[in-house]
Amino acid sequence: MRTFQDKIGRSWTISINVSVMKRVRALCGIDLFNIVEIDDKQNPKADLLERLSSDPILLVDVIFAVCKEEADERNVTDEDFGRSMSGDSIDAATDALLDEIVDFFPTAKRQVLQNLLTATRRFRAATEKQLNTLLADGTFQAKIEKALETSFGSAI
C-alpha cells in the first residue's frame, strides 16, 4: 500500500488488487491490467500509460475509483476529490498508483513495468532539470520579454 496527500492535507491509501481493478474498469472503462502491453516483437506498448499521463481528468477519475471505498467512508464525492487534486498532489498520487500497479503483477511483468517506470522517472527528472536550468539563467525570461515586446510593442 502507498499513500499520498491531496492539496488540503487529507491522506489517501492506494492499494491495487483484483477487486480494485474491477472497480476501475466499471467506473472508468480503464483496464489497469493492460497498463503496458507487449507487442508481437516483444516491445512494450504503453498506450494506456500515455493516455493517463496526458489526461489529468481521467487520471484523477482512476485514482478516485481506486480510493472510492475510503472516499465513501469519508463522504467525499468524486467532485470533492477532484477539487482537492492539483499539481503536486496529482504527482504524488500518480507515483503511488504506478508503484502499486507494478507491485500487483507477477515477477516477469513486474520487471518490465519497473524498467519502464524507472526510465519514465529518469526522463521526468532530466526534463525538470532542464527546465530549472532554463529558468535559472534568465535567458528564457529575456526571450519571453522580447516576444512580448515584438507582439505588443515596447510598453512592457
Keywords:
156 residues, two-stranded antiparallel ribbon, 4 strands, two-stranded antiparallel sheet, mainly alpha, 8 helices
Describe the structure in your own words.
With 156 residues, the protein is mainly alpha-helical. It contains eight helices and four strands. The chain has helices at 18-28, 47-54, 56-66, 68-73, 78-83, 87-104, 107-136, 139-152, and strands at residues 2-5, 11-14, 37-38, 44-45. A two-stranded antiparallel ribbon has the order 1-2. Strands 3-4 form a two-stranded antiparallel ribbon.
**Which geometry do the CA atoms define?**
globular
Mean pLDDT: 88
For the sheet with most strands, the description reads:
2 strands, antiparallel
Helix content: 55-70%
Cα-to-Cα separation, first versus last residue: 51 Å
Poorly predicted sequence stretches spanning 5 or more consecutive residues? none
Strand order of the largest sheet: 1-2
Task: State the total count of DSSP E strands.
Answer: 4
Order of helices and strands: EEHEEHHHHHHH
Cα-atom radius of gyration: 19 Å
Number of helices: 8
Q: Which band does the percent of strand residues land in?
A: 5-15%
Short description:
With 156 residues, the chain is mostly helical.
Question: Topology, pairings included?
Answer:
Blueprint: E1 2-5, E2 11-14, H1 18-28, E3 37-38, E4 44-45, H2 47-54, H3 56-66, H4 68-73, H5 78-83, H6 87-104, H7 107-136, H8 139-152
Antiparallel strand pairs: 1-2, 3-4
